[in-house]
Amino acid sequence: MSFEYTYRHRVTFSETDMAGIVHFSNFFRYLEMAEHAFFRSLGHSVHPRDEKVRSGWPRVKAHCEFLRPVRFEDEIDIRILVSEKTSKSLSYLGSVSVVDDSPVLCAIGGITTVRIRFNPEDGRMRATDIPSEIDNKISVAPPELCEGLLNHLKRR
Questions:
Q1: What are the sequence ranges of the domains in the chain?
Q2: CA 25/CA 107 separation, integer angstroms
Q3: What is the pTM for the complete model shown?
Q4: Which tens digits make up the pLDDT trace of 97-108?
Q5: How far apart are alpha carbons 7 and 105 in whole angstroms?
Q6: What's the CA angle centered on 90, arms 86 and 95, to 5 degrees?
Q7: Phi, psi at residue 149, to the nearest 5°?
Q8: Residues acting as catalytic residues
Q9: How far is CA 104 from the centre of its chain?
């Protein structure tokens, strides 16, 4: 069972502002990129194309604390930990670090996402249980891993 994933990314120019610093909104995209790669590593997708009834994983909560700027062409590691899991939702705690001789922690955040299915008659979304073939592959990270990340925020 998996509870952690790290995704490496090089910052592109389009992700930055006029000063060459990553725009804050991209940190949420980074967490989402890591989540999608995590699902692929488990042999699944957050948006499967072969389902008869469409499903998805909309975000219902997002937060981020910025510690240091990330700049154009920085190579970053986006690490996510499954911090909570219910029958219908997954919460991730994530970090963004610039890869260097000694990684530099730049942001800590999180997202909560809910498994939904679309009603074929009216298109409305309804929360539904996480399919067992996904649920059986994902576990919650040990509390000390999540607490370790959160302790960085307390020291600020």
A1: 4-154
A2: 12
A3: 0.91
A4: 999 888 999 999
A5: 14
A6: 140
A7: -65, -45
A8: 17
A9: 19
